[in-house]
Amino acid sequence: MKRFATIVALGSLVLLAVFLLYPLALVLDASIRIDGTGAFTFGNYAAIVKSRYYLGSIGNSLLAAALATGLACAIGIPLAFCLARVDVPGRALLLTLASLPLVLPSFVSAYALVLLFGHAGVVTTALRGIGIPIGSVYGMPGIVIVFTLTLYPYVVMPVLAGFQAVDASMEEAARNLGGSQSYAVRTVLLPIVMPAILAGGLLVFIEALENFGVPAVLAEDRPFLAVDIFKLFAGESDANPAAAGALSVLLIACTALALLVQRHYLGKRRFSTSARSAPAKLALTPGLQLAAAIMSWGIVIVSLLPFAAVLMVSVLRFRGPVLTWELGLDNYATLLSGSYRPLLNTLTLASTAAIATMLIGAPIGYVVARHRSRLSGLLDFVGMVPFAVSGTILAIGLIVAFNSGPIVLTGGWLILVIAYVVRKLPFAIRSSSAIVHQLDPSLEEASINLGVSPSRTFASLTVPLMASGLVGGVVLVWITAASELSATIVLYSSRWATTTVVMYHAIEGTGAGLAAAAAAVLILVTAIPLLLVNRRVNKQEATVI
């Protein structure tokens, strides 16, 4: 068994060294050289520190990420608590709808809201016409709103699981000591689920900090790190790979610092419980029951406003760049009359990346959970590095690494799949290791004692036991890869353009209706597997109950 773990660990480390650490090292090297390739210098960092523009870019990015994280937690934690502990009507449907914001590319949500609530948006214009003044959605408020509405499911999912896993005796003990229900929630439940809250909040913070599409649509003249990095690397007139590398390193440092703060907090406290019995639903008064239902459904309905905006825009006619209230299917007709290749590329690349991610991530998660050693510890650390790296930065590193030399990948499909796999690998590792922790190791030991090889035991026994969790992980990776923009916009070639790239360029031009129609199709295509998985999970829960 030790040999199997060593082979998996060494093979995984080699893959991560070639396709993650080496590209990132080249980005770091470019950041400390004149013009990215010249003599050694720290002048690139000094120029950033002296620049009010770039300091403002860093400040805006951190502020937007922090505000979005706070608001996502403010709505995600109560919603997760209601889903876990309150008998909310339509819970299964509510949980499915709460997952949908992950399907829609965030920059499409941003632009749909611009068409409705921008300076000349149809809703803004209509309200002003009847004497109701309203500000536009541009700027920091709009960016934070879009981040909050699209990223809060990252808080809901782990916190919901945390509330469901709390041992009921902990809450009962607090009540028996004279504490009220609200006191037990504040002093017992919330502290116990704090790791889940921090995990979800950290994911929101990093995703918002590294997001390229939303600031590109809503920032106007405000600088943001992810947008500046892309412009400095890919700009036709002001390309500056050295400055792009320096900003990339600073962005990685910000996300790494957030990870270290979280680990420091968790390392000083213990949160485990025996979890002998799951907590029961709360016995609330009819008034509180109604309030919980209204709050839960209200949060989800508001978060689906970008979906409604996209669907509305997709069936409205445009006169040039101007949106009208005239209904029609012109946008879908234009979309269907064009090439289907971007949609096929999206489905092909996302499917390949999802399968490859789980094929690589499941063995890594197994080794990390089952075999504690310095090698597995190193693998665990390196496997989490992509969590702190934005798609734009990884894409830049891959281009620099594989644009020439013995291995040339630029311009093809493989470099896109590699970027997706590396970016989503932490999800696969964490979900796989969490499942393995719940499996009794004596089953594997018995199989090996009967003469079955460790590798065959893993493939024929452990993987089937992990199947339900792996399917969920595949769907999550598939959905997020299908809506990926930050890495794709840097790496794609004309032959391998995806639906998100088509939407982004349509939004940049005058094809907003086409972008909305493409987004509606992408929503339908990516939502189907999500709905099927949630339906299966809900059936399993009902069977257990």
From TrEMBL:
GO terms for cellular component: plasma membrane
Chain segments annotated as transmembrane: 54-81, 93-118, 138-163, 183-206, 242-261, 282-315, 347-369, 381-400, 406-422, 465-492, 512-533
Location of the protein in the cell: Cell inner membrane; Cell membrane
Start and end residues of each ABC transmembrane type-1 domain: 58-262, 343-533
Membrane topology: Multi-pass membrane protein
GO BP, sorted A to Z: transmembrane transport
Similarity-based family: Belongs to the binding-protein-dependent transport system permease family.
UniProt keywords, alphabetically: Cell inner membrane, Cell membrane, Membrane, Transmembrane, Transmembrane helix, Transport
Cross-referenced InterPro entries: MetI-like (IPR000515), MetI-like_sf (IPR035906)
Native source organism of the sequence: Bradyrhizobium rifense
High-level lineage: Bacteria, Pseudomonadati, Pseudomonadota, Alphaproteobacteria, Hyphomicrobiales
SUPFAM superfamilies named in the record: MetI-like
Major location (coarse): membrane
Protein name, UniProt field: Iron ABC transporter permease
